């Protein structure tokens, strides 16, 4: 049976988040530099975006660079930044043609200026697109996000816009980078690692987790569909019975 035929179109998650992991190992297995793996990961990004669009997912969040990834060798960090800027720049027209809106979460202000400029242009140019929202987590760390939210809440308390009694999970949510985005129902991590690595700690509270052994550059639409099928076999209880 065709994979797509096994997916129930009435139970497609609205939001899927992916930790794209394993680029370095993929390259090393081929006797190449880690950057070669990142370059080949771009193709897997296309596959994931296409599969998400085809299956009716409305939000796809991709973890592209964590706040901890700055600790990698300088040439890898520089190469990744260049690759991000050039691939997003090159894809703008395709994004628009396919109705894909680009959004960014993370501390953009710490990225190289040229990268920021290209990213903001892509965000602006795709802002009217409606078919799928592609959220790229860049220089993203969930603990930093929660600390940024707490800081802003304290500032708003000081100026009297909110009071301590207003602070609830719902208020908290509005201060996160993902304020306008629903929580993911499904999170996929490739490469066989089973950890969150500082990704969406608040938002993943009730998310179904799918761990996939393939290294990110080998990830394809079929892997995405298999994750959706796995998700549809889960019983989501949210603490109830
Ligand atoms: C994921 O692949 C991409 C980024 C973190 C930017 P890795 O670079 O982490 O690859 P491995 O995990 O070392 O194989
Ligand atoms: C998580 O992967 C970050 C991204 C995919 C961008 P890492 O490879 O950095 O995570 P660890 O080091 O294995 O936890
Ligand atoms: Mg990794």
Describe this structure in words.
- By secondary structure, the protein is an alpha/beta fold.
- It has a single domain (12-141, 181-231), classed as Undecaprenyl pyrophosphate synthetase (3-Layer(aba) Sandwich).
- The chain is 42% helix and 15% strand.
- β3 (100-105), α4 and β4 (132-140) form a beta-alpha-beta unit.
- The longest helix has 24 residues, at 74-97.
- The site of one 3-methylbut-3-enyl trihydrogen diphosphate has 11 residues, from β2.
Features:
about 240 residues; Undecaprenyl pyrophosphate synthetase; 6 strands; about 15% strand; globular; binds 3-methylbut-3-enyl trihydrogen diphosphate; binds magnesium ion
Topology:
Blueprint lengths: L14 E5 L3 H7 L4 H22 L3 E8 L7 H24 L2 E6 L7 H13 L6 E9 L1 H17 L10 H6 L11 E4 L18 E4 L9 H12 L9
Parallel strand pairs: 1-2, 1-5, 2-4, 3-4, 5-6
Low-confidence stretches: none
CATH superfamily membership: Decaprenyl diphosphate synthase-like
Counting copies of identical and different chains, the oligomeric state is single chain
What is the alpha-carbon Rg in Å?
Answer: 18 Å
Spell the H/E element sequence.
EHHEHEHEHHEEH
How many structurally independent domains? 1
Count the beta strands. 6
Care to give the gist of this entry?
With 241 residues, the chain is of the alpha/beta class.
């Amino acid at each position: 049976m065709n994979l797509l035929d096994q997916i129930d179109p009435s139970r497609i998650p609205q939001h899927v988040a992916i930790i794209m992991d394993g680029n370095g190992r993929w390259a090393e297995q081929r006797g190449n530099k880690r950057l070669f793996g990142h370059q080949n990961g771009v193709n897997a990004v296309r596959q994931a975006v296409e599969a998400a669009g085809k299956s009716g997912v409305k939000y796809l969040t991709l973890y592209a660079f964590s706040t901890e990834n700055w600790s990698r060798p300088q040439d890898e960090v520089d190469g990744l930044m260049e690759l991000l800027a050039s691939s997003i720049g090159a894809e703008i027209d395709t994004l628009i043609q396919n109705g894909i809106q680009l959004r960014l979460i993370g501390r953009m202000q710490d990225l190289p200026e040229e990268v920021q400029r290209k990213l903001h242009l892509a965000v602006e140019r795709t802002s009217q697109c409606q078919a799928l929202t592609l959220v790229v987590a860049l220089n993203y760390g969930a603990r930093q996000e929660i600390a940024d939210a707490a800081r802003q809440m304290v500032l708003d308390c000081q100026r009297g816009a909110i009071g301590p009694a207003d602070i609830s999970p719902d208020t908290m949510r509005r201060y996160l980078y993902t304020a306008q985005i629903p929580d993911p129902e499904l999170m996929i991590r490739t490469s066989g690692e089973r950890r969150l690595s500082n990704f969406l700690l608040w938002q993943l509270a009730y998310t179904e987790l799918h761990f996939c052994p393939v290294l990110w550059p080998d990830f394809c639409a079929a892997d995405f569909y298999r994750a959706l099928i796995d998700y549809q076999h889960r019983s989501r209880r949210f603490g109830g019975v």
